[in-house]
Amino acid sequence: MRACIHRGSKQIGGSCVEIEHEGQRLLIDLGLPLDAESNDSQYLPPIGALDGSDPSLLGILISHPHLDHFGLLAHISPSIPIGMGAAARRILSAAAPFLPGNWPIPAPGWDYETGQSFATGSFRITPYLVDHSAYDAYAFLIEAGGKRLFYSGDFRAHGRKSALFERLVANPPGGVDALLVEGSSLGRLGADEHFPTEAEIEAQLIQSFSATDGLAMVHTSVQNIDRIVSILRACRKTGRKLVIDLYAAAILEATENRNLPQSDWPDVALFVPRAQRLQIKENAWFDLLNKHSKNRIFIETLQSVAKQSTVLFRPLHRYDLEKGNCLEGASYIYSQWEGYWEQGMYDDLRSWLERNNIKKQSIHTSGHASPADLKTFVASLAPKKVVPIHSFTPERYPEMFAHVEPHHDGEWWEV
Ligand SMILES: [Zn+2]
To answer: What is the pLDDT of residue 343?
Structure first.
Protein backbone atom coordinates (compact mmCIF):
# COMPACT_ATOMS: atom_id res chain seq x y z
CA MET A 1 0.00 0.00 0.00
CA ARG A 2 1.26 3.49 -0.90
CA ALA A 3 0.01 6.83 0.35
CA CYS A 4 0.23 10.46 -0.69
CA ILE A 5 -0.85 13.48 1.32
CA HIS A 6 -2.16 15.83 -1.34
CA ARG A 7 -2.75 18.57 1.19
CA GLY A 8 -2.25 18.74 4.93
CA SER A 9 1.39 17.81 5.57
CA LYS A 10 2.12 21.38 6.73
CA GLN A 11 -1.28 22.94 7.27
CA ILE A 12 -4.58 22.70 9.08
CA GLY A 13 -7.51 22.52 6.70
CA GLY A 14 -8.01 21.22 3.20
CA SER A 15 -6.97 17.71 4.21
CA CYS A 16 -6.75 15.12 1.46
CA VAL A 17 -4.85 11.81 1.41
CA GLU A 18 -4.80 9.27 -1.40
CA ILE A 19 -3.93 5.62 -0.84
CA GLU A 20 -3.23 3.08 -3.53
CA HIS A 21 -2.85 -0.70 -3.64
CA GLU A 22 -2.60 -2.85 -6.77
CA GLY A 23 -3.95 -0.07 -8.95
CA GLN A 24 -6.99 0.66 -6.77
CA ARG A 25 -7.31 3.96 -4.95
CA LEU A 26 -9.19 5.52 -2.07
CA LEU A 27 -9.24 9.13 -0.92
CA ILE A 28 -9.47 10.11 2.72
CA ASP A 29 -11.15 13.52 3.11
CA LEU A 30 -11.48 16.16 0.41
CA GLY A 31 -11.39 19.35 2.40
CA LEU A 32 -11.58 23.02 1.56
CA PRO A 33 -8.49 24.95 2.73
CA LEU A 34 -9.26 27.27 5.65
CA ASP A 35 -7.93 30.30 3.77
CA ALA A 36 -10.02 29.65 0.64
CA GLU A 37 -12.04 32.71 -0.31
CA SER A 38 -14.94 30.66 -1.61
CA ASN A 39 -15.75 27.01 -2.19
CA ASP A 40 -14.27 26.86 -5.66
CA SER A 41 -13.05 23.95 -7.79
CA GLN A 42 -9.66 25.67 -8.17
CA TYR A 43 -8.80 24.23 -4.72
CA LEU A 44 -9.17 20.59 -5.86
CA PRO A 45 -5.88 18.75 -5.43
CA PRO A 46 -4.35 17.26 -8.61
CA ILE A 47 -6.07 13.86 -8.45
CA GLY A 48 -7.13 11.90 -11.51
CA ALA A 49 -10.71 10.89 -12.24
CA LEU A 50 -12.69 13.10 -9.86
CA ASP A 51 -15.16 13.28 -12.75
CA GLY A 52 -15.99 9.62 -12.06
CA SER A 53 -14.42 8.43 -15.32
CA ASP A 54 -11.94 5.99 -13.76
CA PRO A 55 -13.23 3.01 -11.74
CA SER A 56 -9.82 2.60 -10.06
CA LEU A 57 -10.98 5.35 -7.68
CA LEU A 58 -13.17 3.28 -5.36
CA GLY A 59 -14.50 6.15 -3.29
CA ILE A 60 -13.84 8.83 -0.70
CA LEU A 61 -13.86 8.30 3.04
CA ILE A 62 -14.90 11.48 4.86
CA SER A 63 -13.78 11.55 8.49
CA HIS A 64 -16.24 14.20 9.75
CA PRO A 65 -18.61 16.92 8.58
CA HIS A 66 -16.33 19.98 8.76
CA LEU A 67 -15.70 21.92 5.56
CA ASP A 68 -11.94 21.58 5.86
CA HIS A 69 -12.49 17.82 5.45
CA PHE A 70 -15.43 17.46 3.04
CA GLY A 71 -15.99 20.88 1.39
CA LEU A 72 -14.62 20.05 -2.05
CA LEU A 73 -17.13 17.23 -2.55
CA ALA A 74 -19.17 20.02 -4.15
CA HIS A 75 -17.01 19.73 -7.28
CA ILE A 76 -16.78 16.01 -8.00
CA SER A 77 -18.91 13.46 -9.79
CA PRO A 78 -21.88 12.12 -7.78
CA SER A 79 -21.00 8.67 -9.15
CA ILE A 80 -18.03 8.43 -6.73
CA PRO A 81 -19.15 6.65 -3.52
CA ILE A 82 -18.73 8.64 -0.32
CA GLY A 83 -18.27 7.12 3.14
CA MET A 84 -19.58 9.02 6.18
CA GLY A 85 -21.37 8.52 9.44
CA ALA A 86 -25.12 8.23 8.81
CA ALA A 87 -25.91 11.07 11.22
CA ALA A 88 -23.23 13.27 9.66
CA ARG A 89 -24.79 12.62 6.26
CA ARG A 90 -28.25 13.63 7.54
CA ILE A 91 -26.84 16.78 9.17
CA LEU A 92 -25.24 17.90 5.90
CA SER A 93 -28.51 17.38 4.02
CA ALA A 94 -30.50 19.24 6.68
CA ALA A 95 -28.01 22.12 6.64
CA ALA A 96 -27.78 22.48 2.86
CA PRO A 97 -30.89 24.61 2.22
CA PHE A 98 -29.87 27.09 4.93
CA LEU A 99 -26.29 27.57 3.77
CA PRO A 100 -25.08 29.43 0.71
CA GLY A 101 -22.03 28.82 -1.42
CA ASN A 102 -21.64 25.30 -2.75
CA TRP A 103 -22.52 23.41 0.40
CA PRO A 104 -22.02 19.81 -0.73
CA ILE A 105 -24.49 16.97 -0.29
CA PRO A 106 -22.40 13.81 -0.31
CA ALA A 107 -23.24 11.05 -2.77
CA PRO A 108 -24.30 7.70 -1.30
CA GLY A 109 -21.64 5.19 -0.36
CA TRP A 110 -20.78 3.63 2.99
CA ASP A 111 -22.47 4.56 6.29
CA TYR A 112 -19.96 3.96 9.06
CA GLU A 113 -20.66 2.09 12.22
CA THR A 114 -17.98 2.30 14.83
CA GLY A 115 -15.86 -0.84 15.04
CA GLN A 116 -17.66 -2.45 12.05
CA SER A 117 -15.18 -3.22 9.28
CA PHE A 118 -16.14 -3.11 5.64
CA ALA A 119 -14.28 -3.90 2.46
CA THR A 120 -13.96 -2.19 -0.89
CA GLY A 121 -11.64 -3.53 -3.57
CA SER A 122 -8.58 -4.84 -1.75
CA PHE A 123 -9.00 -2.40 1.16
CA ARG A 124 -10.49 -3.22 4.52
CA ILE A 125 -11.67 -0.23 6.54
CA THR A 126 -12.59 -0.02 10.21
CA PRO A 127 -14.07 3.29 11.38
CA TYR A 128 -13.71 4.43 15.01
CA LEU A 129 -16.10 7.03 16.39
CA VAL A 130 -14.06 9.82 18.04
CA ASP A 131 -14.61 12.80 20.33
CA HIS A 132 -14.55 15.98 18.21
CA SER A 133 -16.42 19.27 17.87
CA ALA A 134 -18.12 17.90 14.72
CA TYR A 135 -20.88 15.38 15.37
CA ASP A 136 -20.36 11.80 14.16
CA ALA A 137 -16.58 12.06 13.56
CA TYR A 138 -14.35 9.08 12.83
CA ALA A 139 -10.78 7.83 12.67
CA PHE A 140 -9.96 4.92 10.35
CA LEU A 141 -7.85 1.82 10.27
CA ILE A 142 -7.19 0.91 6.63
CA GLU A 143 -5.64 -2.43 5.74
CA ALA A 144 -4.36 -3.62 2.36
CA GLY A 145 -1.55 -5.89 1.15
CA GLY A 146 -0.67 -6.90 4.71
CA LYS A 147 -0.09 -3.27 5.80
CA ARG A 148 -2.06 -1.19 8.27
CA LEU A 149 -2.51 2.57 8.09
CA PHE A 150 -4.34 4.51 10.81
CA TYR A 151 -5.78 7.97 10.07
CA SER A 152 -6.67 9.88 13.22
CA GLY A 153 -8.98 12.46 11.63
CA ASP A 154 -9.61 15.37 14.03
CA PHE A 155 -10.12 14.33 17.62
CA ARG A 156 -9.80 15.34 21.24
CA ALA A 157 -9.97 13.83 24.71
CA HIS A 158 -11.61 16.72 26.58
CA GLY A 159 -15.10 16.83 25.06
CA ARG A 160 -18.37 15.21 26.08
CA LYS A 161 -17.35 11.94 24.44
CA SER A 162 -13.92 11.61 26.02
CA ALA A 163 -14.81 8.00 26.90
CA LEU A 164 -14.26 7.20 23.21
CA PHE A 165 -10.67 8.37 23.51
CA GLU A 166 -10.14 6.36 26.69
CA ARG A 167 -11.59 3.28 25.03
CA LEU A 168 -9.39 3.58 21.96
CA VAL A 169 -6.14 4.10 23.85
CA ALA A 170 -7.03 1.26 26.24
CA ASN A 171 -7.69 -1.10 23.37
CA PRO A 172 -5.84 0.18 20.29
CA PRO A 173 -5.63 -1.70 16.99
CA GLY A 174 -2.26 -3.42 16.98
CA GLY A 175 0.42 -3.63 14.32
CA VAL A 176 -0.07 -0.19 12.82
CA ASP A 177 2.59 0.47 10.18
CA ALA A 178 1.86 4.14 9.58
CA LEU A 179 -0.10 6.58 11.73
CA LEU A 180 -1.28 9.80 10.13
CA VAL A 181 -2.02 11.88 13.20
CA GLU A 182 -3.39 15.41 13.43
CA GLY A 183 -1.33 17.95 15.37
CA SER A 184 -3.51 21.07 15.41
CA SER A 185 -2.66 21.91 19.02
CA LEU A 186 1.12 21.71 18.54
CA GLY A 187 1.21 25.23 17.13
CA ARG A 188 -1.03 26.61 19.86
CA LEU A 189 -0.04 25.01 23.16
CA GLY A 190 3.15 24.10 24.96
CA ALA A 191 3.81 20.43 25.73
CA ASP A 192 2.20 20.65 29.18
CA GLU A 193 -0.67 23.01 28.41
CA HIS A 194 -4.26 21.81 28.10
CA PHE A 195 -7.41 23.11 26.48
CA PRO A 196 -10.33 23.51 28.91
CA THR A 197 -12.74 20.60 29.01
CA GLU A 198 -16.31 20.89 27.74
CA ALA A 199 -17.39 20.55 31.39
CA GLU A 200 -15.28 23.63 32.26
CA ILE A 201 -16.95 25.49 29.39
CA GLU A 202 -20.32 24.63 30.93
CA ALA A 203 -19.16 26.04 34.28
CA GLN A 204 -18.00 29.28 32.62
CA LEU A 205 -21.35 29.59 30.83
CA ILE A 206 -23.21 29.16 34.13
CA GLN A 207 -21.16 31.97 35.62
CA SER A 208 -21.78 34.25 32.68
CA PHE A 209 -25.55 33.54 32.52
CA SER A 210 -25.85 34.17 36.26
CA ALA A 211 -24.13 37.52 35.91
CA THR A 212 -26.40 38.60 33.03
CA ASP A 213 -29.42 40.79 33.85
CA GLY A 214 -31.08 40.39 30.47
CA LEU A 215 -30.91 38.16 27.46
CA ALA A 216 -27.82 35.94 27.14
CA MET A 217 -26.64 35.39 23.57
CA VAL A 218 -24.23 32.57 22.76
CA HIS A 219 -22.70 32.65 19.31
CA THR A 220 -21.55 29.19 18.31
CA SER A 221 -21.65 26.80 15.40
CA VAL A 222 -25.01 25.07 15.42
CA GLN A 223 -23.23 21.95 14.22
CA ASN A 224 -21.08 21.90 17.36
CA ILE A 225 -23.61 19.71 19.13
CA ASP A 226 -21.42 19.14 22.19
CA ARG A 227 -21.41 22.88 22.75
CA ILE A 228 -25.19 23.12 22.42
CA VAL A 229 -25.47 20.48 25.13
CA SER A 230 -23.13 22.54 27.35
CA ILE A 231 -25.24 25.65 26.72
CA LEU A 232 -28.53 23.88 27.49
CA ARG A 233 -27.11 22.39 30.69
CA ALA A 234 -25.94 25.86 31.75
CA CYS A 235 -29.42 27.21 30.92
CA ARG A 236 -31.05 24.61 33.17
CA LYS A 237 -28.80 25.48 36.06
CA THR A 238 -29.58 29.19 35.74
CA GLY A 239 -33.33 29.01 35.09
CA ARG A 240 -33.14 29.95 31.42
CA LYS A 241 -34.69 28.49 28.32
CA LEU A 242 -32.60 27.84 25.25
CA VAL A 243 -33.97 29.73 22.25
CA ILE A 244 -33.05 28.19 18.90
CA ASP A 245 -33.90 29.09 15.32
CA LEU A 246 -35.22 26.84 12.56
CA TYR A 247 -31.75 25.98 11.26
CA ALA A 248 -30.68 24.76 14.69
CA ALA A 249 -33.95 22.87 15.10
CA ALA A 250 -33.39 21.10 11.77
CA ILE A 251 -29.78 20.16 12.58
CA LEU A 252 -30.67 18.82 16.03
CA GLU A 253 -33.49 16.79 14.53
CA ALA A 254 -31.11 15.36 11.90
CA THR A 255 -28.99 13.75 14.62
CA GLU A 256 -31.97 11.44 15.28
CA ASN A 257 -30.65 11.33 18.82
CA ARG A 258 -33.45 11.97 21.29
CA ASN A 259 -30.89 12.42 24.07
CA LEU A 260 -29.84 15.67 22.42
CA PRO A 261 -31.80 18.92 22.77
CA GLN A 262 -34.79 19.11 20.38
CA SER A 263 -37.25 21.87 19.50
CA ASP A 264 -40.10 20.17 21.39
CA TRP A 265 -38.28 19.93 24.72
CA PRO A 266 -39.92 21.99 27.47
CA ASP A 267 -36.76 24.00 28.13
CA VAL A 268 -36.20 24.78 24.44
CA ALA A 269 -38.08 27.45 22.45
CA LEU A 270 -38.14 28.24 18.75
CA PHE A 271 -37.73 31.83 17.61
CA VAL A 272 -37.66 32.43 13.86
CA PRO A 273 -35.77 35.60 12.92
CA ARG A 274 -37.03 37.73 10.04
CA ALA A 275 -34.29 36.64 7.65
CA GLN A 276 -35.33 33.04 8.21
CA ARG A 277 -39.04 33.82 7.82
CA LEU A 278 -38.22 35.14 4.34
CA GLN A 279 -36.30 31.94 3.55
CA ILE A 280 -39.24 29.85 4.74
CA LYS A 281 -41.65 31.77 2.52
CA GLU A 282 -39.37 31.70 -0.50
CA ASN A 283 -38.74 27.97 -0.24
CA ALA A 284 -42.14 26.93 1.14
CA TRP A 285 -40.63 25.19 4.18
CA PHE A 286 -43.96 25.23 5.96
CA ASP A 287 -43.85 21.57 6.95
CA LEU A 288 -40.43 22.03 8.52
CA LEU A 289 -41.65 25.09 10.40
CA ASN A 290 -44.80 23.33 11.62
CA LYS A 291 -42.82 20.34 12.80
CA HIS A 292 -40.71 22.56 15.05
CA SER A 293 -43.35 25.05 16.19
CA LYS A 294 -44.57 23.33 19.37
CA ASN A 295 -42.64 25.80 21.54
CA ARG A 296 -42.51 28.70 19.10
CA ILE A 297 -42.27 32.19 20.55
CA PHE A 298 -42.43 35.60 18.89
CA ILE A 299 -40.36 38.68 19.54
CA GLU A 300 -42.77 40.23 22.09
CA THR A 301 -42.55 37.10 24.24
CA LEU A 302 -38.80 36.93 23.89
CA GLN A 303 -38.60 40.54 25.03
CA SER A 304 -40.71 39.80 28.12
CA VAL A 305 -38.75 36.68 29.09
CA ALA A 306 -35.30 37.94 28.07
CA LYS A 307 -33.90 37.45 31.59
CA GLN A 308 -34.93 33.81 31.52
CA SER A 309 -33.64 33.15 28.01
CA THR A 310 -30.42 32.32 26.19
CA VAL A 311 -30.44 32.72 22.44
CA LEU A 312 -28.33 30.42 20.33
CA PHE A 313 -27.12 33.47 18.47
CA ARG A 314 -26.24 33.90 14.82
CA PRO A 315 -25.58 37.26 13.16
CA LEU A 316 -28.96 37.06 11.40
CA HIS A 317 -30.61 37.62 14.82
CA ARG A 318 -29.28 41.18 15.08
CA TYR A 319 -32.15 42.95 13.34
CA ASP A 320 -34.88 41.21 15.34
CA LEU A 321 -33.26 41.52 18.76
CA GLU A 322 -32.49 45.20 18.29
CA LYS A 323 -35.86 46.12 16.80
CA GLY A 324 -37.70 44.04 19.40
CA ASN A 325 -35.95 45.81 22.33
CA CYS A 326 -34.46 42.58 23.66
CA LEU A 327 -31.01 43.94 24.40
CA GLU A 328 -31.27 45.72 27.73
CA GLY A 329 -28.75 44.10 30.08
CA ALA A 330 -27.90 41.54 27.40
CA SER A 331 -24.61 39.67 27.21
CA TYR A 332 -22.82 38.28 24.16
CA ILE A 333 -20.64 35.19 24.44
CA TYR A 334 -18.53 34.16 21.49
CA SER A 335 -18.07 30.40 21.52
CA GLN A 336 -16.20 29.38 18.40
CA TRP A 337 -12.89 29.92 16.61
CA GLU A 338 -11.43 33.38 17.35
CA GLY A 339 -9.74 33.57 13.94
CA TYR A 340 -12.98 34.61 12.21
CA TRP A 341 -12.75 38.01 13.95
CA GLU A 342 -9.20 38.50 12.71
CA GLN A 343 -10.32 37.59 9.17
CA GLY A 344 -12.84 40.46 9.35
CA MET A 345 -15.87 38.19 9.06
CA TYR A 346 -17.57 39.84 12.04
CA ASP A 347 -16.79 43.53 11.46
CA ASP A 348 -20.52 44.33 11.18
CA LEU A 349 -21.26 42.34 14.29
CA ARG A 350 -18.57 44.28 16.15
CA SER A 351 -20.24 47.60 15.26
CA TRP A 352 -23.64 46.21 16.26
CA LEU A 353 -22.31 45.16 19.66
CA GLU A 354 -20.64 48.54 20.17
CA ARG A 355 -23.79 50.38 19.15
CA ASN A 356 -25.80 48.40 21.70
CA ASN A 357 -23.15 48.73 24.36
CA ILE A 358 -22.61 44.98 24.67
CA LYS A 359 -19.17 43.57 25.44
CA LYS A 360 -17.87 40.45 23.74
CA GLN A 361 -16.90 37.62 26.06
CA SER A 362 -15.16 34.50 24.76
CA ILE A 363 -15.93 31.06 26.16
CA HIS A 364 -14.61 28.29 23.98
CA THR A 365 -12.49 25.20 23.84
CA SER A 366 -10.81 23.44 20.98
CA GLY A 367 -12.03 20.42 19.06
CA HIS A 368 -8.47 19.13 18.99
CA ALA A 369 -6.42 17.07 21.41
CA SER A 370 -3.97 18.83 23.69
CA PRO A 371 -0.30 17.85 23.16
CA ALA A 372 -0.26 15.50 26.17
CA ASP A 373 -3.33 13.66 24.84
CA LEU A 374 -1.71 13.36 21.41
CA LYS A 375 1.29 11.80 23.14
CA THR A 376 -0.92 9.29 24.96
CA PHE A 377 -2.68 8.47 21.70
CA VAL A 378 0.49 7.90 19.68
CA ALA A 379 2.15 5.90 22.48
CA SER A 380 -0.86 3.59 22.74
CA LEU A 381 -1.02 2.91 19.00
CA ALA A 382 2.77 2.42 18.93
CA PRO A 383 3.01 2.68 15.13
CA LYS A 384 6.14 1.85 13.13
CA LYS A 385 6.05 5.40 11.79
CA VAL A 386 4.24 8.62 12.61
CA VAL A 387 3.41 10.91 9.68
CA PRO A 388 2.42 14.52 10.46
CA ILE A 389 -0.86 15.85 9.07
CA HIS A 390 -3.29 18.68 9.89
CA SER A 391 -0.71 20.84 11.68
CA PHE A 392 1.00 24.14 10.98
CA THR A 393 4.01 22.93 12.98
CA PRO A 394 5.02 19.46 11.73
CA GLU A 395 8.56 20.26 12.89
CA ARG A 396 7.39 19.79 16.48
CA TYR A 397 6.43 16.14 15.94
CA PRO A 398 9.93 14.71 16.55
CA GLU A 399 10.05 16.42 20.00
CA MET A 400 6.75 14.78 20.85
CA PHE A 401 6.73 11.32 19.26
CA ALA A 402 9.09 8.49 18.32
CA HIS A 403 9.59 7.27 14.70
CA VAL A 404 8.38 10.44 12.98
CA GLU A 405 8.62 10.26 9.19
CA PRO A 406 7.41 13.50 7.60
CA HIS A 407 6.24 13.56 3.97
CA HIS A 408 5.63 16.55 1.74
CA ASP A 409 2.36 17.29 0.01
CA GLY A 410 2.26 15.42 -3.29
CA GLU A 411 4.95 12.87 -2.35
CA TRP A 412 4.11 9.13 -2.64
CA TRP A 413 5.50 6.82 0.05
CA GLU A 414 5.25 3.17 1.04
CA VAL A 415 3.12 2.45 4.07
ZN1 LIG B 1 -9.91 19.73 10.51
So the answer is: 86
Query: What residue ranges of the chain have pLDDT lower than 70?
Result: none
Specify the DSSP element, H or E, that contains 140.
Answer: strand 137-144
The whole-number pLDDT of residue 308 equals 98
What is the CA(156)–ligand 1 centre distance, in A?
Answer: 12
**198-362: CATH topology:** Rossmann fold (3.40.50)
Q: Which has the closest alpha carbon to 60: 131, 135, 112? A: 112
What's the pTM value of the predicted model, to 2 decimals? 0.94
- Sketch the domain layout of the chain as residue ranges: 2-190+367-414, 198-362
Condensed to tens digits (0 to 9), the pLDDT of residues 274-302 reads 999 999 999 999 999 999 999 999 999 99
**Ligand 1 centroid, distance to 154 Cα (angstroms):** 6
Please report the pLDDT score of residue 45 as a whole number: 95
How far apart CA 261 and CA 36 sit, in angstroms, is 33
Nearest to 231 by CA among 335, 379, 345: 335
**59 Cα to the center of ligand 1, angstroms:** 20
d(CA 29, ligand 1 centre) in Å: 10
Count the residues in the chain.
415
The CA distance from 169 to 111, in Å, is 24
* Inter-residue contact 144 to 131 (CB < 8 Å): no
Q: How many Cβ atoms are within 10 Å of 22's Cβ, its own excluded? A: 10
Distance 36 CA to ligand 1 centre (A): 14
Ligand 1 centroid to residue 12 C-alpha, Å:
6
How close is the Cα of 288 to the center of ligand 1, in Å? 31
- The protein residues having their C-beta less than 5 angstroms from ligand 1 (an ion) are 68, 154
Domain 2-190+367-414 has CATH 3.60.15.10: yes
Convert the pLDDT of each residue in 308-363 to its tens digit. 999 999 999 999 999 999 999 999 999 999 989 998 999 999 999 999 999 999 99
